[in-house]
Amino acid sequence: MQKLAMPLEIPITAASGPTTIELDWDSRHLGQRVGRIDAQQSSDLAIADSLAQAQQQGYRLVYLSTAADHLLPAELLQQFGGELVDRKVTFSRILSATETCAALPLTPWRITSYTEPAASTQMIALAVAAGEYSRFGADRIYPRDRFIEMYRLWVERSVRRELAADVLVATRDGNEPAGMITLAIDQNCGVIGLIAVDAQYRGQGIGRLLMQAATTWMVGRQLSTAKVTTQLNNHGACQLYLRSGYEQFSLQNMYHFWL
Description:
Elements: E1 9-12, E2 20-23, H1 24-30, E3 34-38, H2 44-56, E4 61-67, H3 74-80, E5 82-94, E6 110-113, H4 121-130, H5 135-138, H6 144-159, E7 166-171, E8 179-186, E9 189-197, H7 206-220, E10 225-231, H8 235-243, E11 247-258
Parallel strand pairs: 3-4, 9-10
Antiparallel strand pairs: 1-2, 2-3, 4-11, 5-10, 5-11, 6-7, 7-8, 8-9
């Protein structure tokens, strides 16, 4: 998932394993010390060393990532209260400078920028729906109220254009949005953050319309690439991105350790 804010990162050197990074925003949001370990190139023994060190230093929750082909053994998970909560997949596609910004097909749904100064109750509900497959939604221990608040803040800050350059919504007959997508720019790459369609309107092609509108938005700003991150078990989202011309770019395992 896209980060809610750039965390203050304080390196804590473990005995022989990868470094634990303290995440300031996450710690304040949860009310307990939270850290991150990038274990893409680490052995199980080195990972155990790092987790033991983090435990001694008072971390309550550690996010740990491993390479796609490196699944941690059950013994290590049991020892440190770990669970595989996400197989994080990033999709990307090339945006041609000559790509035609195709007109949206004839449909009762209108795709426009969300211009209200604050996120409505419906926008917050869509944001929470966008996060249901996330590692925070999948984690059985992570407090539900903290998960909801995280996504409320994400969409609120996106609407204020703090975490997004634009927010597109699908509406009909002036009603509340049935779907939304948030868009950001990272150098010359367009980044999709949140995307969701209200459950009662799914199956009407709104997701496809939002993706097409996002492509038009990116091409119009002369961006060269686009990317989006989701969960491998979110089959609907993965299929939507593949049908929209994206290809799988990377895959990693995301663990939560409650120490």
